[in-house]
Design a protein that fits this description.
Two copies of one chain form a homodimer. With 230 residues, chain A is mostly helical. Chain A has a domain of 155 residues: Tetracycline Repressor, domain 2, CATH 1.10.357. Helices cover 60% and strands 0% of the residues of chain A. Chain A is globular, with a radius of gyration of 18 Å. The termini of chain A are far apart. The N terminus of chain A is likely disordered. Chains A and B meet through helix 7, helix 8, helix 9 and helix 10 of A and helix 7, helix 8, helix 9 and helix 10 of B. Chain A binds a DNA duplex (30 and 30 nucleotides) through helix 3.
DNA sequence: CTCGGTATGATAGTAACACTATCATAAACG
DNA sequence: CGTTTATGATAGTGTTACTATCATACCGAG
């Protein structure tokens, strides 16, 4: 339950039960729901996405899908949480034997900005599409009138857990830095926003001709964070 | 039409014509639309907000409101743009005779984090409510599948203009800093996000007991930006 | 004072959306 | 073998996001 040493073994991601009505990872329909909703949301955007459309796509029915999630908003929170949990796992996996905290933080930044390299084997999910959803739609998960309720129900646990993990490293690098949590949440948000801007509002970024957006964002964030910590 | 030297004179904020179908600042109904939509969106949130509800509230009709804005998304973009334009004006007004660029940037940060102190006289709009809308909903203005179209139509001009203005000061402080635009857009986004987190997801921030959220966010951002520029 | 445009209101209608309920059925499990 | 359990099929409801049409009230020009 703790570790899965074999590549082939399915990585079991445990999420807050209150995110769903029925666990989509337990059943065939649930897994199709997840895999296809990721593709569909990526294609048409979250506002255009409906359970009806998804049902047609996976040749199921609206009613069946509503048995898994109360509504599409909960599904979004679920998908995003799943991504954060997966990212936490990736980070743990790639940094657990790196003793230098600065080096560990750099590795985390790398993983954050290259979040799409989800090994396809992990689940049947399209990692690149899920990453695009996180970039484009993740903010909508908490920018609602229900934030406080949702938060109390623990729906943002995975995000907060990830942030706390990174903040710990920040404090390890510089224990006197007064804003580790703010720095980390700014970091997490900025990663996505800058990638979004690079694609859609380039005047808000500094895109270098010869570099990819990810590399530029990484360089910017590395510079920002380590200067803040000195 | 160009300048209004008297305090009592209504500040005329010129926005991209493509933001609206009919200029809401020109008519009585338009101004009521603006003022009341701000209050209503603030109260119930953008997803719950409908033209129908607003029409009932201002004792008009749905059809009449649709003559001003294509849909509620355009209205949101308009309101947010209005805020950015107003903020640009505030910044120009308060910094035009400050020679030191570092001091100017600090003033800008102050104005950004205290954006709610909209002098009520400016329009009939509720400045505090509009600021809350900017914090809670502004991201939704561009996080859509239509970003590129909307951007091409110039709907985000005010935001980009504001960012460019601040970026110029950043470059004035340190002309060799390689990421002025990224720093500024990160700054603008982080301001809102951190205020949101302080209110709803405090574990993502470092809230000091004796300080207000605005002061803490200001201190954090000032530290972050000036360290980045040294 | 009349004429013509302009802003608004009143009313109606439509397609899609966001569900909820009920009943049938087939597989899985004990 | 009987009973849960998951799914499908179908129907229905209230709301949303518009669009269309027509009436009316006002306002400025001739």
């Amino acid at each position: 339950m703790e570790t899965h040493p074999f590549a082939n073994t399915h990585l079991r991601i445990e999420l807050n039960e209150r995110l769903y009505l029925r666990d989509p990872q337990q059943t065939d329909l649930g897994r199709r729901l997840m895999a296809e909703s990721i593709k569909l949301i990526d294609e048409i955007g979250f506002e255009q996405f409906t359970f009806k459309r998804l049902a047609i796509r996976i040749e199921s029915t609206e009613a069946s899908l509503y048995r898994y999630f109360e509504n599409k908003h909960r599904l979004l929170v679920y998908l995003v949480s799943w991504y954060w949990a997966w990212l936490s796992y990736q980070i743990r996996f790639h940094t657990h034997n790196v003793p230098n905290p600065a080096e560990r933080l750099r590795l985390m930044l790398r993983i954050l900005t290259r979040g799409h390299q989800c090994d396809a084997a992990t689940m049947q999910v399209d990692g690149a599409a899920l990453y695009r959803i996180v970039v484009n739609e993740a903010s909508k998960a908490y920018l609602t009138k229900d934030v406080d309720q949702d938060n109390q129900a623990g729906l943002f646990r995975e995000y907060k857990r990830l942030a706390a993990g990174i903040a710990a490293v920040v404090s390890e690098i510089n224990p006197t830095y007064p804003y580790p949590h703010m720095l980390v949440s700014t970091l997490l948000e900025a990663t996505r926003k800058q990638l979004f801007f690079a694609q859609h509002l380039p005047s808000l970024t500094n895109s270098a001709e010869q570099k990819t957006a990810e590399e530029t964002v990484y360089a910017f964030l590395e510079n920002l964070v380590f200067k803040a910590l000195t």
